[in-house]
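Possible regression after last week's pipeline update?

I re-ran a chain I had predicted before the update to compare outputs. Posting the input and the new output here so someone can diff against the archived version. Not blocking, just want to make sure nothing changed silently.
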Amino acid sequence: MTQPSTPSDFDVQGTIARLFVYPVKSCAGVEVREALLTETGLEFDRAWMVVDEAGEFVSQRELPRMALIRPQLKQFEMVLRAPGMLALHIAYDRVEAPMQAKVWKDTVAAYDMGDVAAQWFSDFLSEPGKPREDSPGRPQESSIPSGDDAARSAASGGRRYRLVRFDPEHKRLSSLQWTGGVEAEVQFADGYALLVASEGSMAGLNERLAAGGHAAVGIERFRPNIVLAGLEAHDEDRVEMLHVTTAEGQAQLQPVKPCTRCPIPDIDPATATSSPEVGDTLRSYRADPRVDGAITFGMNLIVREGVEHMLKVGQVVAANYRFD
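New output (post-update):
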């Protein structure tokens, strides 16, 4: 069957309204006007991750303060800022020792980012009220914690965290069950390269929140990579391949799995405080039989075509409805 050749030939047309990259898993996102599409999603998305002493990832589920860590992507480095902390600078071209890290059920090859970054994350995340007294502020090489520092931290009950970077030589795959056997690569994201949601879906949720006497919330709570304008509410659930018209040609992003929702959308990204109205409202209308009745919002995507294309706000996105 011949594919439609222009956006007007498709059932659904919209545009990219917003783009987000989440460099450090579960920390704040970075809104961008354009982003390079790679095999594993947007460039730098979930390239870094915070792990505990056992090398297992941590997230806002148990550490809501991670929402307050705000990355900034510069030409040669990522800069991390958090309340009460001076900036932490992470060079793109530098890693420390190789290690293994665990994200959900997957054990993956990664690189430790060193003691300075570990101290910074441990200071901010271990004590909810303030950094520990031995916090180095903006760390310099001379502020790498000594063994005595680590011993004092352990004695005070502070947990230790480390920052790791995904090893690009490692091949982590999305669920073959949901991709239909397509080998789709992913870095530290929960399971898939990209997440898409629409302004229409968000408007529908906010209408329901208002009807329940609650304030509107932003789409940032749902941590999408791509936000689409011009679609009806939850059309992203009902379409086949997304065709994005780029300067390089046409990128193809395939919706493969509804995004099941944990308590993170209940966390206000501006304050890291949690309240239940978002989750409660979603439960009233978003139980999804495709995932055994779990609550869903947005669709997980894999990259089928368009690696090295530049996705930009304003680009046209078109798709046909899926009829299963």
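Follow-up from reviewer: compared with the archived run. The CA atoms of residues 266 and 274 lie 5 Å apart. Marking as no regression found.
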